């Protein structure tokens, strides 16, 4: 007898980041003092003015009804204006589709652009959802491997070596989840021009656009850089989750050519209809407000970034490049594989993450989830005390040895 679940859905890998977070929370609920570096979620509350906009929206009966699938007209206009303000990339409101979080924007983009067998250049390490969304759309991920020797950045030469005649899309992410890598402007422009020369679509995920640090903040580049060289074959993905500490509100968006946006909205009309109206009006308050809230969070993340890199670099067997954006570090832990840790020896980073959780009560995500075994992803979007205590526990586990 065959499986009760379709092959298409049965082949989807569970979100490793959410699985790690769920396991950590379950252990915490059971009374274990687990410190979680798993979920990419700011530890700050959503700013008050955004919450107040949602409270007011709840009381307005107009928001108790269906609204246009593609998003509230005022929010689509505000997202277009915010995009021009923050990146210099000018789009019309009709080019914006409001989605149920960034993940639906990712899914809608690939479902709308790909036919079965079309290939997507996917730079590894990559966020866990990307390959699953590509495969669900009938596409084929073409992995382009990077490592710490280049700061997890790819090159046009690498991309060209991976490209085939079936390649249709380049997925470009800067700042990167899981590595925190940020591409310099010149490199972004070069990649955009290369994509255009081969008629490739560029899907660019901008969700961490405001979380860039140090020198990278001055020279980093987003859609404003890649769009002119890539022509009209650009789809921008974004949302309020990371910038405004609104992960649970579930509001993202997709920006692209009007025909693509119209087709993606048609898909969404059958999948979910409109995004929650209260959340949309909270997002409206977010994107029309100033960026003072994110400036405060960014300062805290920057401090934690430098702290976690310093602490991890002091642990023998761990090599931790300094990230330039987002709120993750992606250290190589190959030096810990095959070494006894309190009597347990991990031969893979998936096993190592289990040992760290069970022996040190610290939750991390193994590199297997991001297409590159041998690494761990740790989010530093958690309190300073927990961060220091968590890395100290890992350090003690390594120091204790067998």
Notes on the structure:
44% of the residues lie in helices and 13% in strands. It has helices at residues 7-10, 16-29, 48-59, 73-87, 101-113, 129-136, 156-162, 185-197, 214-219, 223-230, 258-271, 277-288, 292-313, 349-360, 384-400, and strands at 35-36, 96-99, 119-124, 140-145, 167-173, 201-205, 234-239, 252-255, 328-329, 340-341, 344-345, 362-363, 365-366, 376-379. The longest helix is centred in the last third of the chain and has 22 residues, at 292-313. It folds into two domains: 7-45 and 293-400, Aspartate Aminotransferase, domain 1; 48-289, 3-Layer(aba) Sandwich (Aspartate Aminotransferase, domain 2), CATH 3.40.640.10. The protein is built from 15 helices and 14 strands. It is globular. It is an alpha/beta fold and 402 residues long. The strands form four sheets. Strands 2-8-7-6-5-3-4 form a seven-stranded mixed sheet, sandwiched between helices. A three-stranded antiparallel sheet has the order 9-14-13. A two-stranded parallel sheet has the order 1-12.
List keywords for this structure.
402 residues, 13% strand, Aspartate Aminotransferase, domain 2, 15 helices, Aspartate Aminotransferase, domain 1, alpha/beta, single chain, 14 strands, 7-stranded mixed sheet
Globally, the shape reads globular
Number of helices, where a helix is a run of at least 4 consecutive DSSP H or I residues: 15
Number of strands: 14
Output the CATH homologous superfamily of the largest domain. Type I PLP-dependent aspartate aminotransferase-like (Major domain)
CATH topology value of the largest domain: Aspartate Aminotransferase, domain 2
Q: What is the strand content?
A: 5-15%
**What is Rg?**
21 Å
